[in-house]
Every structure is written in C-alpha cells, then in structure tokens.
Amino acid sequence: MEINVTRRQGGFLVDATFGGPASGVTALFGPSGAGKTSLINMVAGLVRPDAGRISVNGLCLFDVERRINLPPEKRRIGYVFQDGRLLPHLSVRANLTYGMHRTPAERRFVTFDAVVELLGIGHLLGRRPARLSGGEKQRVAIGRALLTSPAMLLMDEPLASLDASRKSEVLPFIAQLSRAYAIPILYVSHMMDEILNLADHLVIMDSGRVVASGELQELFSKPELQAHIGKENFGSVISTVVEEPLDASGLTSLRFGEHVLKVAAVPAGRGAPMRVRISARHVAVARQAPALTSFQNIFSGKVVQIGYGGESHVDLLLDIGCLLWARITRKSFLDLGLQEGQAVFALIKSVAVKTIALETPPSRFCRGSR
After folding, report:
1. What keywords does the record list, in alphabetical order (predicted)?
2. Which CATH number fits domain 2-229: 3.40.50.1100, 3.40.50.300, 3.40.50.970, 3.30.450.20?
C-alpha cells in the first residue's frame, strides 16, 4: 500500500505520505479533525486529491502525473462507515449479498457461508435492519463490504457509534477478520485500545499531516510521540507466546526471549501468540532484588536511557532482554541515584499487564486467489 496525496479543503491541507503492508491492519490514529476520514475518502475515490499517487498491491488507483483516477466502483475497495448504512427495506441476507452480486464470479474469493460463520450472524439472515442491535448492524456492514471480495478494506471508526458493551462484541470479529483474509485493511480510529487490539502498523496523523509511520511496537514506545499517542498510553508493547496457560499460582505464563512474564489468567492455549501492553507508570525500579514483594515479575536489566519528563517524574528506558519503559517520580530517581548503564531490577504487577490475543484463525475463511 503506497499513499502520497495532497488536497486543500478550504483552509485545511491534507498532505500525507506513507506505506503499509500488503495484508493486515494499518491504523490511522489521530485526534478528531486530523484529516483521517478525508484521507481514506481519497483512497476510496470519493474525493479527488489535488496531487499525488495511490497504489494498492500493484494496482494504481490514482496518479495525477499519469492521469489515472479510477472511479470508486473500479477500485475494488470495501468501505465500512461509522454507522452501518444498511438498506432498511432489505433483509440481512439481501444486504450481505447486495455488493457480492455486483462482483464478477471469477473475482470472488470470499464465500457467503464463511463470512456468516466468521461474524456469527447466521441467526440474523431473515431479519430487517430495524430489528438489529448496533453491534449486529456493524457486523452485517462488515460482512457486506467483505463479500465484495475487495482488494482493500477501509474502516472509518466502525465502533464510534457503539457503547462499551457493543464495542467489545464487535472488536473480536474485526480482529479475526484481519487475520483470516490476506487483504490490507486501513482502520481509522482515535482510540488507542482499539488499535492495540487490531493493528501491527501505525500511522499517526495531526493537522492533515503524517507525524510518524511504522511498526506499532516501535512507535508506541517513542517518548517524542507521547504528545500524539497520549501520555496515559505511554509504555511498552511486547510480543510474547503462551508458555503455560494456567500455572500453579493461577496465572498465565508468557515467554519473551529468555524470560517469562506472569499475567492474570487469559483464555489462550499453549504456544498462542499474545501482545502485551505495559504502561510505564506500572513499572517500578529497584537497585536490589526485593526479598519479599507482591510483584510477580522481577527482571534484572540496566538503564539505557533517561528522559526527564518534567518537574514530577522521570522516564527510564530499561533493557531487560527487551526494551521496557518505566515512569518514576523525580524523588525516587534521585533517591536511587540512577545513571545510564546502571544495573537495576524492573518490577511489574501481573494485574497491570494488558494482554491481547493474536491467534490466527483457520484458513477455511477464504478460497482461491484474490
């Protein structure tokens, strides 16, 4: 995925350049008014850029120099909006197949039964949209977009109109979707929790421009991006696998490198990939290994970087076999006499670790080639 576009909308300029993987989720993150929706509307062909180029998996959608501007219906893009936008007079089944019947049979690689199973909507097929909950409407909207067998899927804050319980209902289906089909998904959100559950690649936007673009784990832990990601989100994201689903202490053991991280029990089998998020403010630092403590995770390491975050706190980048951020008070920093290169111990509460399952579903959800 290659996007390089500019467009002036009154006094607002969108000037964005970034790339993304050929499959999986690329998240567009930024505050309201950052230009995220304007950008994906250009990708969809709903808005024409003033200049630039858009290409997805080798297919050029727009190129001002070559005078290429494919109409929306020729771009093979599925679009899921904030609201479902289902056709009220049609049943769920008819809504699902509305776009599918307009895709030539030889280009279909997504099957109806597989989508119904993946999204868990088999019992809804005979209903009209008026009889669906908000979460059910969004699942049907996702299925409708997917059944066009798109070369790319755009999702513009698809959970924004849902309450917390409905969000938790739909989010796992989107996560499965991104791993079941080998197509790129451009996912717009200003909620970091959604992005941590879904994306591997992150694009941060602000005031119409791309501030940073790259692997989520790398960008998430950069202190210079705190202002854009949000100070409350600052910390570390680590890839792990389940070593012991439930040990004698009632915790789940996750392996990363040569180390094991103990977390609250998670419903995942041995060997399952997991992403963990550890907030910097939930990491304590000690000069000596504590003898008696409630912390279940104690890792030896060293201080590799000191960031002075203000009058009240200091951010420490620790190497414990992977990079880990800790945020401690300035008083604690001075009392411990910490310096770069110094040996320390990082202490992490098991209950403070946020876990995200990254299990890949079976390949039965798609057939043939796109």
Report:
1. ATP-binding, Cell inner membrane, Cell membrane, Membrane, Molybdenum, Nucleotide-binding, Translocase, Transport
2. 3.40.50.300
Compute the distance between CA of residue 276 and CA of residue 297 in angstroms, rounded to an integer. 14
Say what the pTM is. Answer: 0.81
The helix/strand/coil state of 7 is strand
CATH code for 236-357?
2.40.50.100
What pLDDT is recorded for position 367? 37
Q: Using CA atoms, how far apart are residues 61 and 157, in angstroms rounded to an integer?
A: 23
The separation between CA 227 and the C-alpha centre of its own chain, rounded to angstroms, equals 19
Domain ranges within the chain, ordered by starting residue: 2-229, 236-357
> Beta strands 283-286 and 323-329: pairing type?
unpaired
Backbone phi and psi for residue 60, each to the nearest 5 degrees, phi listed first: -80, 120
pLDDT tens-place string over residues 180-229? 777 889 999 988 888 888 888 999 999 999 999 999 888 887 878 877 88
pLDDT of 283 > 80? The answer is yes
Q: Output phi, psi for 200, to 5 deg.
A: -110, -25
Segment 161-182, tens digit of pLDDT: 777 877 777 787 787 777 777 7
Q: Report in angstroms the alpha-carbon separations of 242 from 199, 274, 355.
A: 20, 7, 11
Give residue-wise pLDDT tens across range 230-268.
777 788 999 899 999 887 788 999 999 889 999 999 888
Q: Are strands 251-256 and 259-264 parallel, antiparallel or unpaired?
A: antiparallel
Segment holding 273, helix H or strand E:
strand 273-279
